[in-house]
Amino acid sequence: MIDDDRWLPVQLLCYDIINEVVLWKKEFSIGSFQNYDIVDIDNDGIKEIILSSYSPMNQHPIDELRREYLGSKNFSTLFILNNLGEIKSFNDEPLIVSSSFGFCFYEFLYLPKKNQILLGLKSYFDNSEKKLQILDLKTNQISTLNILYNDLLKLKKDNDDIILLNRVNNRFEKIRLNSNLKVENRISKIMESDFYYYDNNVSKLYGQNISSIGYPYAVLNNELEIIYQPSFHFTSPSWKNNDLFCISKNEVTSNLLKLHFERNKTLNPYLFIIILTELLIILLYFFVYHHIKIPMVSTTSSYFILYSFFGRLYYWKLQGRLKRIYKLPKKMSINEEIPINILNEISDDNELRYQRNFFFLKYKVFEVSSTDEFQIIQRISHDLKNQVLMTKLMTEQYEKDLEIKNKDFVENMFSSLKDISSSAQTLSNFSHINKLYKEKVEIKSFIESIISQYVNHPLFEQICLLNCLSEELLQRQTNEESTTEKSSFERKARRAPQEDRSFFINIDKSLFQIAFKNLLNNALEAINKNGYVKVEISEIKDDVVIELRNSFDKLDSSCKPESGLSTDK
Question: 87-137: per-residue pLDDT in tens?
């Protein structure tokens, strides 16, 4: 390209450097070429030339009337030429894009994946709002995008994204577009003075991407922050390593300058404040941690920690193995007796191990003696074993009375299996074993329903349910009192017979049934066919007493129940 002045034509030459001959030459009636690219737009193996021209309105070459020029004389134009310097056509239509006339030219970016050219106008005097355009090389059609700019300084690729640099008066704007030509973000900076061009050559300064604008000249980083601005005017900037080469001009001379840049090693005062603040926070953390940390004597024990705020507000929590099987009630109070009572309910065996004051905070650490979880598992396993034994006994009886009690027996067998399932569920949820699901129950009727589950037990007829002490038994105990010293509990339990009545108590039916069956099973295992098991319900003051007695003596006929049950008065 031969580019002189706006009054002389511009020539584009194709020169064979091997044979040293000009293959072709084209002239343009315009001021200069601004940018160009050589690409294969139709994938035929032959590259085309994309170039943008600048038109200084009606300031044409002196001899333009005697010459034949390529393109428009008055408009800035984007050309696509073939390898012979001729304007390439698509469906007999030339691939040319012309703008309005007057001191402007096209900034463009070829998008090979889309086979499109992204276009925008750069103008020194028109700062009005415009929209990006895109030329589809497959159809030779131009479409307008809804992306606004004022004065397009540069279009460039950044991996799969597109960077658009825009000037709005003295404001510099960096717009990032994704691969779908959608705006991802915008960065805008106000410059202290107006500027007219952007340096297309992006360089690096100590590994950081930099660019430049002018006039006046300024070096910018990726965030559009000015990192250097000289106090004098120069042109033709060029970067090499960390040096800037340029030409300084005045009315008399021109000088070649070399500017060397060094890293700024001055400590930023704000950075110093941030580092000092972080150190103070770390020191405060270790100081507080040293005073607030809860020392644990043993990792296998349980600990009850009681916090006191200003001596008025109390908060507590449980740590260690006991926490898994004991769920604490509400954890905040203004009365210290509440957490202390909770501590005593958890275990009578607890010891104050550690206490510390820290300004408004005071805390105490109690070591709590807790039941081993394996003991809990052992107890539940014992319940399961009893249920399996019951099923075994009923199965043996089933073999003997196959045709006699077939229906009832099967129902009771399924009931025992249901008990086994319930115990297994308790085992799987043993971490909540202390949580009771209480409900109001008439205890005599409930015990009758439990005993009825033993209808197929070989010793079912030896089970007797009494609502109080019988006359004969009461008289026998009265006679024995004169010769034998009785406990205070037994003396309170003896009273005159009372009429049949109901006793309502709050219990967890599932856990009560497990406990009662354990006692009843143990009693049945300890007697023979001549023995008996008495279940007696009585009342002492506000307490309901349930007693199970077993004996090898034959059951008295007056107390012998029908179908294994009795409700003697």
Answer: 888 777 888 777 766 677 888 999 988 889 999 888 777 788 889 999 988
How many Å apart are CA 93 and CA 187, to the nearest integer? 40
Distance CA 87, CA 175 (A): 33
The tokens describing 160, both together, are 């799969």
Q: Can you name the residues that pair with 77 across neighbouring β-strands?
A: 98
Please compute Rg for the chain using Cα positions.
Answer: 50
pTM above the 0.70 mark? no
Lowest mean pLDDT among 186-195, 344-353, 480-489, 519-528: 480-489
Token pair for residue 225? Answer: 């922050």
With tokens 């001009």, the residue in question is 249
Token output for 227: 């990192």
DSSP 291: H
List of E strands, 124-206:
130-136, 141-149, 151-158, 161-168, 171-177, 183-190, 197-198, 203-205
* pLDDT tens string 11-42: 788 888 899 899 888 877 655 566 788 888 88
Taking CA atoms, 67 is separated from 5, 6, 8, 28, 208, in Å, by: 17, 15, 11, 10, 49
> What is the rounded CA–CA span in Å between residue 526 and residue 566?
21
Looking at residues 34-57, what average pLDDT do you find?
Answer: 81
The Cα 408–Cα 63 span in angstroms is 124
Q: Which H helix or E strand runs over 70?
A: none
More reliable by pLDDT, 484 or 213: 213
Instruction: State both tokens at 26.
Output: 């084209």
Q: Would you state the structure tokens that stand for residue 466, as one six-digit string?
A: 């009494």
CA 39 – CA 400 distance, rounded (Å): 100
Which run of H or E residues covers position 507?
Answer: strand 504-507
The chain-wide mean pLDDT, for the chain, equals 76
Pinpoint the alpha helices (H) of 94-168: none
From the list 307, 347, 341, the residue with the least C-alpha distance to 323 is: 347
The CA distances from residue 51 to 12, 184, 405, in Å, are 11, 28, 105
Nearby residues of 254 by Cβ (< 8 Å), 6 or more positions away? 247, 248
Beta pairing, strands 208-214 & 197-198: antiparallel
Inform me whether the pLDDT recorded for 314 exceeds 90. yes
Q: How far apart are the first and last CA of the chain?
A: 126
* Distance (Å, whole) CA 465 – CA 461: 11
Edge-first strand order for the sheet with 532-540 is 463-466, 532-540, 543-551
Entry field: residues in the chain: 569
Distance between CA 498 and CA 327 in Å, rounded?
Answer: 42
Query: Which one, of 113, 46, 43, 41, lies nearest residue 78 by Cα?
Result: 41
